[in-house]
Structures are given as structure tokens and as C-alpha cells.
Automatic annotation (TrEMBL):
The chain crosses the membrane at residues 78-97, 103-121, 128-148, 154-172, 179-197, 203-222. Keywords: ATP-binding, Kinase, Membrane, Nucleotide-binding, Phosphoprotein, Transferase, Transmembrane, Transmembrane helix, Two-component regulatory system. It catalyses: ATP + protein L-histidine = ADP + protein N-phospho-L-histidine. InterPro entries: HATPase_C_sf (IPR036890), HATPase_dom (IPR003594), His_kinase_dom (IPR005467), Sensor_HK_TwoCompSys (IPR050482), Sig_transdc_His_kin_sub3_dim/P (IPR011712). Its EC number is 2.7.13.3. Residues 369-459 form the Histidine kinase domain. The keyword Kinase applies. It comes from Streptomyces albidoflavus. This is histidine kinase. Residues 1-22 are annotated as: Disordered. GO terms for molecular function: ATP binding; phosphorelay sensor kinase activity; protein dimerization activity.
Length: 465
């Protein structure tokens, strides 16, 4: 009788030892797979998406709360209230009559699925958690109802409508990562119910997933576009403020450079007179001569310090400012140049009369008046060419007044300057403030513009404001 060799139990795949070895190999494969870069990156992304779902939006202000009109600010609350008022009773009725659910349970589900829409106006992420959880629990509960056959499942039509309204609120407030997490969670819930019961599934989960993605994308795009426009407006406002400040500083520097030339002229005269005193004044004693020499030395030191300060203010293209500064005595030359530019300008007084009236006017005031007239005429040339313009100069015991009035002129179709310096009215105000005067500018009722500057005959301390 032939005897069979004993069977090797280690080769039997059904033995406990073989099962343990298979499980160990599976665990080792899972451990090695979990340490790969792709899996680690995927786990990190899933973790960040989970954190995004738990992070509320940065702002809790209601939607459209920044609108100017009061009815626009209250519009989101009104729409949310209308949606709740319409969906709550309909959802309760459908769950009771069509699905055969208990009335109390149906009312609780309907409230949890619709009432948080009021919260979504200001806190959409928190509202999504409540509605999403209520939708999932209600879908599981509907599996045990007698009227499920032939009905929409897992989402009812009311669920879909309310959920899409919630998606709009989320897209207008939450960040991109949060929106992606909400969309994936919606798709994951639909996939779960598809696997749970393919018999009752009617494709509403795919419809909800598609509509949610489209509304999230559309509302988020609108929100980001609005944010970009607001940032652009803020940047333009900041740029305009910086440009105004830069214009003011540039004009002050220009005035300081011009006044330096005026002051330097007087200081040079003091130096020359003090140095030549011993030669011009006969029988000048030695002590007086030393005093005049000290005055001349102090004047020269002051000039040196002024030139050192001016080197900080003077730009590279300011070499032409070393020439003598003009005054109202050169007003006729300025008027002639303006007439050649096409603006008819007339003066109420002749150049000789103006020179006689301003004989004792300080040079700084004379320069300020000339620059004010120059800027006013330049504005007429730029903005109202061919406008008839009148310049009036009047002198009183304590002040000098210059008035420039132009009538309406034709508007230029093509601007004379593509980029304005902005120095016109800014420069006028700074010059008037420097000498303690007043400036009145504004349009005329019948068209045109008026500039009136009144400067004191003797300089006052400027207003520090």
C-alpha cells in the first residue's frame, strides 16, 4: 500500500499563519505608500481643506452692508427671510404628505434646512455646517419612510433650492479654499448616498454637485472682481493724496529757491555797502570801520549758508533760476506773451503807473504777485483759450490787490497738456500764505473764472496752518 507524504501546512493559503503573513504584507505596503511624497502632499491638502471648513470668513458684516442706499443694505436680509418663509412650510408639507414622515420630525428637518439661510447673510460657513448636516441626516431618515419610492432622493427639490442660495452667500464671502472644500464635501455626500442606495437614487446628487460648483464659481468671481475694483479705488485715492502732497512740496521748494535769489540780492547789497563804507564815508573812525567789516563778514557767511541750504532744494534742471527774479514791472512782457498765445488780455493800468505804485514794495511780495498773475494766465491758456481776460492792480496804504478775471472761452477738444503739474492754485495759495495775504478763486455765474489775491504791503508771519 502506497503511503502519501505528509502535506506541508505552510503552503496552505487558508492557514492562520498564511493569513497573518498576508495581513502583514498589506500593512507594510500601506506604511510604505503613506510615506511617499504624493500621499503626504495629498494628506496635507486634505488637512488644509478640513481646516478651511472650520475657519469662518474674515468678515462678519452682512452682504451689501457697504452700500449707500438703505434699501440695498437690507436687501440680503429681505431675500433670506422671503426664502425661509417660502421653503419652510413647503418642505414640512412635502416631507409629511409625500414621504410619510412624522410631522414633528419633518418640521425639525425643515427648520434646520431653511432657517440658517438668515444666518448665511453674515456667517455663511456656520450656516453651511447646519444645513449640510441637516440635509444628510434628513436623507438617511427618508430611507425609512413609506413614500420614498418614486420620490427625489437624497435631496428634495426644496433642499436643492435652499442649498444653491447658500452657495451664493458662500461664494460672495468665503475664500477659495473654503469654497473648494464645500464643493468637494457636497460631491462626497452625493457619492456616499449613491453607494448607500442605488435603488432610490435618482441623480439629484449630480445635479446638486454641478449647480453648486457653477454658483460658487460665479459668485466668487463677482466677489473677487469687486474686491479688485475697491483696491484699485483705494490705491487711486492714496496715489492722488501722494501726488497732491508731492505737488505741494515741489511748489514750496520752487518758492524757496526764488526767495533765495531775492534775499541773496539784498544780502549782497549789504555786503558791498559794508565793505565800501570806509571808502565812501569820509573821516570814518577805526572802530566804525571794524563794525562795518564785521557786518560784511556776517553777510558773507549768511550767503554761504543760504547757498548750502539751497543746494538741497535746487534740482539738476534748475540752473535757469539763477537769473534775476521778475516782478510786476515786467507784467507787460508777460501780457504780450499771453496775447501771442491767442488770449486777449488787457490791463487796467499802464506799466509806468504800476511801477510808480510799487516803488517801495518788497521784492518778495513783488515776485509773489507776478507769479500769481503768471499762473492765472497760464490756466486761461490751458483751459479757456481765446477768453477775454482783464488784469487789475490796486494799491492801498496797507495792501496790494491783483484781480485776474477771464470770461468763458472755447473748450479744447485736445488738451494743451497731457499731464498737468498741478502747481497752479497750489502755488498761488502757498505764495499768499507765505506773506500772510488772502486768495479768492472760483468760477463766475455767467462763465469764466476769477482770481483775486490781496497781499499786505509789509510782510506778516505766515499762517502755520
Amino acid at each position: 500500500m502506497k503511503t502519501e507524504p505528509p502535506r506541508d501546512h505552510e503552503d496552505d493559503s487558508s492557514s492562520p499563519r498564511s493569513l497573518r503573513e498576508a495581513l502583514d504584507r498589506v500593512r507594510e505596503w500601506a506604511r510604505r505608500t503613506a510615506t511617499t511624497p504624493a500621499v503626504r502632499s495629498s494628506r496635507k491638502e486634505l488637512r488644509s481643506l478640513g481646516l478651511a471648513l472650520g475657519t469662518p470668513a474674515d468678515s462678519t458684516r452682512p452682504l451689501l452692508s457697504g452700500a449707500r442706499n438703505a434699501w440695498v443694505r437690507h436687501l440680503p436680509h429681505g431675500l433670506a427671510f422671503a426664502a425661509v418663509a417660502a421653503l419652510l412650510p413647503v418642505t414640512t408639507t412635502v416631507l409629511v404628505q409625500d414621504y410619510g414622515m412624522n410631522g414633528a420630525l419633518a418640521g425639525a428637518f425643515a427648520t434646520a434646512q431653511t432657517a440658517p439661510l438668515l444666518l448665511a447673510v453674515s456667517r455663511p460657513v456656520q450656516a453651511w455646517w447646519v444645513i449640510f448636516t441637516a440635509d444628510i441626516v434628513a436623507a438617511v431618515a427618508m430611507l425609512g419612510t413609506p413614500g420614498l419610492d418614486g420620490r427625489s432622493w437624497p435631496w428634495t427639490p426644496m433642499n436643492i433650492v435652499g442649498y444653491q442660495l447658500l452657495m451664493i452667500c458662500l461664494g460672495l464671502r468665503a475664500g477659495r479654499r473654503t469654497l473648494l472644500a464645500v464643493w468637494l464635501a457636497t460631491g462626497g455626500a452625493g457619492l456616499f448616498f449613491e453607494v448607500l442606495s442605488q435603488e432610490h437614487s435618482d441623480g439629484t446628487q449630480l445635479l446638486t454637485f454641478t449647480l453648486s460648483g457653477a454658483l460658487l464659481l460665479l459668485s466668487a468671481t463677482l466677489r473677487e472682481r469687486g474686491d479688485a475694483q475697491r483696491r484699485l479705488v483705494e490705491q487711486e485715492t492714496i496715489s492722488e493724496a501722494e501726488r497732491s502732497q508731492r505737488t505741494l512740496l515741489e511748489e514750496r521748494n520752487r518758492i524757496a529757491r526764488e526767495l533765495h535769489d531775492v534775499v541773496a540780492h539784498h544780502m549782497s547789497l549789504i555786503t558791498v555797502q559794508a565793505d565800501s563804507a570806509r571808502y565812501r564815508i569820509p573821516h570814518l573812525d577805526e572802530e566804525a570801520a571794524r563794525e562795518f567789516s564785521s557786518i560784511a563778514e556776517s553777510a558773507r557767511e549768511s550767503l554761504t549758508e543760504m547757498r548750502r541750504i539751497l543746494s538741497v532744494l535746487r534740482s539738476e534742471d534748475a540752473e535757469g533760476e539763477r537769473t534775476p527774479q521778475p516782478g510786476l514791472r515786467q507784467l507787460s512782457q508777460l501780457v504780450a506773451a499771453t496775447v501771442r498765445a491767442g488770449v486777449p488780455v488787457t490791463m487796467s493800468r499802464t506799466e509806468v503807473e504800476i511801477a510808480a505804485m510799487l516803488a517801495d514794495l518788497p521784492a518778495s511780495l513783488d515776485l509773489s504777485l507776478y507769479r500769481i498773475v503768471q499762473e492765472a494766465l497760464a490756466n486761461v491758456v490751458r483751459h479757456a483759450p481765446e477768453a477775454r481776460t482783464t488784469i487789475s492792480v490796486s494799491v492801498e496804504s496797507d495792501s496790494v490787490t491783483v484781480v485776474i478775471v477771464n470770461g468763458p472761452g472755447r473748450a479744447r477738444r485736445v488738451p494743451l497738456e497731457t499731464t498737468g503739474t498741478g502747481h497752479g492754485l497750489v502755488g498761488m495759495r502757498e505764495r499768499v500764505r507765505l506773506v500772510g495775504g488772502t486768495l479768492d478763486t472760483g468760477p463766475l455765474p455767467g462763465g469764466g473764472f476769477r482770481v483775486a489775491a490781496r497781499l499786505p504791503r509789509r510782510e506778516k508771519e505766515p499762517d502755520p496752518a
